[in-house]
Amino acid sequence: MKGLRCGTSNCEHNECRRCMAGIIDIGSNGVCKSKVKREGGELSQIFANYEAAPEADILDNVDTVVQCSADCIFNVNSMCGLEAINVEDGLVRTKCMTRKKS
After folding, report:
1. Alpha carbon distances (Å) from 67 to 26, 27, 38, 39, 56
2. What is the pLDDT of residue 9?
3. 94 has which bridge partners?
4. What is the pLDDT of residues 46-71, one digit of tens each?
């Protein structure tokens, strides 16, 4: 999946709302299990986004493998069958917001 969108406010893999993890794991309840909190927290995230902004078009071409164990209509043999998903901060955890229960 190219240019996976990530709206978490504090993840080491998030650069300019694109996931740079390479492989992410969406758990059974849709939670992103690959999230790694940034040293420096949300302020560090703001600086990382600012630094990556000029390269945003290049970041859209980064390939990310999405492993998925969620009860979702897009789950195909434990892999996400979509071309793009959106991962965002929820009230308690970071989740795949594109998930649709089967």
Report:
1. 6, 8, 22, 25, 24
2. 86
3. 89
4. 777 667 666 666 666 778 899 999 99
